[in-house]
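Exercise 3.2. Students should predict the tertiary structure of the chain below and write it as structure tokens, then compare their answer with the key that follows.

Predict this chain's 3D structure.
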Amino acid sequence: MGSERHLRRGSAKAIILSLLQEQCMYGYQLNKELRRRSQGYFQFKEGTLYPALHRMEKQGLLRGEWQVVEQGPSRKYYHLTDKGRRELDRLQRDWAAFTEQMLALLGVRGGDATVG
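Answer key:
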């Protein structure tokens, strides 16, 4: 699991930006949606997600906005900025190229999950 953890850590920015491209979310909601879509394969620990969100907010990729909710504490919703959209476009191109080359090196053809 160690190598999988390393691969997942390297994909955090792309994952977060991709989810926020579709809709604004607060941290817990983002993590819940990520777990749902990946059938539990991806999930962030609190100590990973919130520092990443704050870092991307400082970089200008996200804009956080506190919203008061009727029940429970206020929530900070994260919105993708124009700079964040450009960064996501770049990351999507980089990941597509990386994945294509890696699969070719591993002998996986045409999206086939088997090696050979």
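Discussion points: The longest strand covers residues 62-67. The chain is about 60% helix and 10% strand.
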